[in-house]
Amino acid sequence: VHTGLAHYYARIGAAQASGFKYIHTGRPDAQGKPVYEPPVVVTNPDLFYLPEEAVELAAQERIQEGGIEGRLALELKDQAKRMVQETIENERKRGRPYQKVVSVELPVELRMTHTTTGKVDRVTTKLDLVVEVKPFGSQDLKLRVVDHKTAARPGDRSTVDKYALTLQLAVMRKIGKLLCRERYDSAYLHLIDSVGGTGGRMLQPEPGP
Length: 209
Known about the structure:
The chain is an alpha+beta fold. It has five helices and nine strands. A five-stranded mixed β-sheet has the order 5-6-7-8-9. Helix 2 (51-65) packs antiparallel against helix 3.
């Protein structure tokens, strides 16, 4: 699902008048760490796959690798295609809740220091999506960080609360503030319906205690 949505939003970004900056992940180095190529401005949507093609290719890669992931990919690939397509259709019906795609699968690395112990942890992650938005009542364009999550009940309050309490969302907020600075708007969850019927919903959970 993540792969399909990544290619969907990348195609939107590339079709924009100014395109968007994309960082390609190269082959891992000798230590197995990912190698990131310098960012480039992409203006050709066809450099990315159609969402259904992207899901199929990702599934076939895992199927060829075998093991548990391969069996799951074979079993779930059609469901993943449906989830992505429903999410896209839902967005088209409701209208896009953003003005511009800024980044897709943006790799981030930072060091975080514990306030009590002074221990420094290295945090590496990827931001699923960064978009430009115009908050209600504001004339200024801000940057919103979005994380895709699949959920059986995306409209259920308990589902939202569960993700709001995770460390991942707290780190995502921290990264968003560091990267976007004064242009930071918020961190949103994009809850994708894994059962069917409602597509996806972008919403902002309250920070956990």
